[in-house]
TrEMBL record, chain A:
InterPro entries: CheC-like_sf (IPR028976)
Protein name: Chemotaxis protein CheC
Keyword annotations from UniProtKB, A to Z: Chemotaxis
Organism: Lysinibacillus piscis
Automatic annotation (TrEMBL), chain B:
PAS domain ranges (all copies): 1-71
Ranges where the GGDEF domain occurs: 173-298
Classification via PROSITE patterns: GGDEF, PAS
InterPro entries: DGC-Regulatory_Protein (IPR052163), GGDEF_dom (IPR000160), Nucleotide_cyclase (IPR029787), PAS (IPR000014), PAS-like_dom_sf (IPR035965), PAS_fold (IPR013767), Rev_trsase/Diguanyl_cyclase (IPR043128)
Record organism: Lysinibacillus piscis
Name of protein: Sensor domain-containing diguanylate cyclase
SMART domains assigned: GGDEF (SM00267), PAS (SM00091)
Top-level taxonomic group: Bacteria
Pfam families reported for this sequence: GGDEF, PAS
């Protein structure tokens, strides 16, 4: 659905947005944190057949923790930052500078883990919303993200049943000191909104060629 | 501000601070007055960074600025920031606070609203709940171990092996039961005492366990009687070869008080379904064959 040029521009833009989040996180945690978006994909969810849905990304079929927020009125949609649950204890241990053991993975999640992920989601999604607002030259209204734990398969089912069918999928590499964790950012847009975003991307592309 | 709204804000079980666009305090609710010992009159009009020095940092300055300029909301977790407001008593437990920074637009004026949630007791409660859950899981596991395992040898006990046999019978899985009885165990008890006799049983169990495959079970029925359950042995040759291997392994000398002790093992076997279709029938057949084997050795 995106041309290579559109994809490259979006990838660069989102790398700038999450870069700002990484700077803030580095300051808060006093650690070297690098966030990068190596891949951006735009999908039309309603056009995917069941096999394509199943193969979309294996992470979506597992148990996951999502922080999500609804944004905008004219330019609208829902942005979500998700982590597979097996990585949550690892991420919180990395963020808090605690030692991570395999037993941690098996233990139950507590409010502290959820609050860490909520804050990470808040910082990352704030940067993305702020960046998109500047790009589109409009103020995007949104609230603090809500955190939800989804059992295996539940997230995928909700995703494919949602009203907004256009999904921008951003793979996020999360480097804390020398450790790496993979998260996903999903931004669901209404058709008008995605057309508006692509129009802006095309304007940037034209400006670059002039 | 409307008195009713103010009364509600002062009833809340969390801290509420309202800052004007210069980041000076305009509202400081009762929760904060109780928590910090500073009344609203004392702090009103003062810069937030003066009253709460932990906010005097670029990180929070950026959050306040973004809340004022574009309505951005920021959440700061106790896990990552620890706390913001210090309690008035030095002996209060370590404060842990979540903070929410948001924009407020009222009567053509913009404000920053800060919500402070004390989560120290919540975190502690959840941690204690998790701990108690882990304890009760551990207790259940230890009860299970007590019910199904022999405390001397740590091998599965009679209850365990009977349930396993019933299950395999239900599933119609072919298996062989070997009934093992030590020869000369009484002599060891008489010569070295019961403690050394127990030690011999433990060594026997350890050596026998090394022999078995994952799905096989070596259980202690009681005294010096053991049962070995092996799945999928079908021919008589296979069964006899297995029996000889077990005998040979267990005939290797054991060392007790520096002395070599050699004991032999009498073994009888029963096959499901050929020799019986209940656990008792199979155990009786294996037991009888074991006695026949013992008589031959004598």
């Amino acid at each position: 659905m995106l041309t290579t040029i559109q994809e490259d521009i979006l990838k660069e833009l989102y790398n700038v947005f999450v870069g700002e989040a990484a700077n803030l996180l580095s300051e808060i945690l006093q650690k070297r944190i690098v966030l990068s978006v190596p891949k951006v994909t735009l999908l039309s969810l309603h056009e995917l057949n069941p096999v394509e849905q199943e193969n979309l990304t294996p992470v979506l079929n597992g148990t996951i923790l999502s922080t999500s927020l609804k944004f905008g009125s004219v330019f609208s949609g829902r942005a979500e930052f998700i982590f597979p649950t097996e990585q949550i204890k690892y991420v919180t241990a990395l963020c808090l500078g605690e030692e991570y053991t395999l037993e941690d993975e098996e233990s139950t999640f507590n409010d502290e883990d959820f609050d860490v992920v909520k804050e990470l989601g808040n910082i990352i999604l704030n940067s993305i919303m702020g960046g998109m607002g500047s790009l589109l030259e409009m103020k995007l209204e949104y609230d603090v993200p809500q955190i939800v734990l989804h059992s295996a398969g539940e997230y995928g089912r909700t995703l494919f049943n949602s009203e907004e069918s256009n999904l921008l999928l951003l793979y996020v590499n999360f480097n804390i000191d020398d450790s790496k964790v993979l998260g996903l950012i999903l931004i669901k847009f209404s058709l008008e909104s995605i057309e508006f975003l692509i129009q802006k991307v095309d304007e940037i592309s034209r400006d670059l060629n002039e | 501000m409307n008195d009713l709204y103010l009364a509600i804000i002062n009833q809340l079980d969390n801290g509420i601070i309202l800052l004007d666009d210069q980041l000076n305090i305009q509202l400081w609710n009762t929760w904060l007055a109780k928590y910090t010992g500073k009344t609203e009159d004392e702090v009103k009009g003062l810069p937030i960074t003066e009253v709460i020095p932990r906010f005097d940092n670029n990180i929070y300055a950026g959050m306040f600025e973004k809340a004022l300029s574009n309505g951005q909301k920021s959440f700061c977790s106790a896990a990552m920031h620890q706390y913001f407001v210090e309690g008035r008593c030095s002996n209060m437990k370590q404060p842990r606070q979540n903070v929410l920074i948001r924009h407020l637009h009222l009567d053509d004026k913009i404000y920053v609203m800060i919500e402070i949630h004390d989560v120290a007791s919540v975190y502690e409660r959840i941690r204690n709940l998790n701990k108690s859950l882990q304890h009760s899981i551990g207790f259940t596991k230890s009860l299970e171990r007590f019910a199904y395992y022999d405390s001397l040898t740590d091998l599965p006990n009679r209850k365990f092996i009977l349930e396993r046999i019933e299950k395999l019978i239900q599933q119609e899985t072919i298996f062989v039961l070997f009934f093992l009885d030590l020869n000369g165990f009484k002599a060891v008890n008489d010569q070295f005492g019961h403690l050394q006799g127990d030690l011999l049983l433990q060594m026997f169990a350890k050596r026998g366990s090394q022999f078995i495959c994952t799905q096989d079970v070596l259980a202690r029925l009681g005294g010096d009687e053991f049962v070995l359950l092996v799945e999928n042995l079908t021919t008589l040759d296979e069964i006899e070869q297995h029996m000889e291997e077990v005998k040979a392994l267990l005939e290797e000398p054991f060392i007790i008080e520096g002395q070599q002790v050699v004991i032999s093992t009498s073994i009888g076997h029963a096959c499901f379904p050929r020799d019986g279709i209940t656990a008792n029938q199979l155990l009786n057949v294996a037991d009888s064959k074991m006695y026949a084997d013992k008589k031959e050795i004598k």
